[in-house]
Amino acid sequence: MTLRIDMHSHFFPRISREEAARVGAADTPWLAIDAGGGTGMIMTGERAFRPVTRALWDPARRIEDMDALGIDVQLMCATPVMFGYRNDATNALQWAQRMNDHALEMCAVAPQRLAVLAQVPLQDIDLACAEASRAFAAGHRGVQIGNHVGPKDLDDESLVQFLTHCANEGIPVLVHPWDMMTDGRMKKWMLPWLVAMPAETQLSILSLILSGAFERIPRSLKLCFAHGGGSFAFLLGRVDNAWRERDIVREDCPHLPSSYVDRFSVDSAVFDPRALQLLVDVMGAERVLLGSDYPYPLGEQRVGHLIDSHPALSERAKQRMLGENAAQFFGLTTVQTAA
Prior knowledge:
By secondary structure, the chain is of the alpha/beta class. It has a single domain (5-12, 54-334), classed as Metal-dependent hydrolases (TIM Barrel, Alpha-Beta Barrel), CATH 3.20.20.140.
């Protein structure tokens, strides 16, 4: 039976307004759960941020959904509003530690089925490195980080330092877009999520490639980008062409941009068989991991169906993408699956 690991799902623990206020700033997120317990609202201070369902905070409900979908193991990571990168670094550390401990409590309900990635106070690299190591030693399978910290993209020297720390410590890293670029024009129809989010992810990948940062980061780093790498695969030909034709593009990048695809992986959340085929053609089947964005409505609702039903992928490629790649990437060989 094919192993199925969903390596990109989100959680938000049952954080009350009082607990959020003790740990964070005035707009620290908390969870308002409706009287029936089946739905709720993520709040940032007084402001309603987004409606959510019970699966976000209830591990038992997650297991029910996993069983229905045929998912053996699910890796959870923070809903990006939880990052706290704008907060005071000391408060952000306390917040990250609290969230990471809550996450392990959720996994304890079904340790053979649930695993988690830690969050870190990325605005202070020393604190971020220390918390990544602490959480990894405590049982987290890696860390999830946002794709930028304010104006600092992943090529910023401090973030390169963090990625190097993770490489040296053997800590896998998932990069998730957040705080999407917008100047007010993308004001309806979820356009920040549909346009800016893929662009943010491509920006992150290219910032590492074109800046020469990958030359300074150990090749041992296990690095994965969410949402299929955003618009990266589709526009890679444009980037290669620019590198060949414009010296300003290749100024800090010694090799053709497409030659760096072996330095990172991506998840499979692209929702279209033609897009998945392109992703596999660009990245290789060994660098595409099943990721759903569960339990949010912009995620894959029938988790794994895009890979399962693809008419052109070999059965071997499907096996790798559905579970084997994630097991190797996150060191899940010790997890006993339900299969």
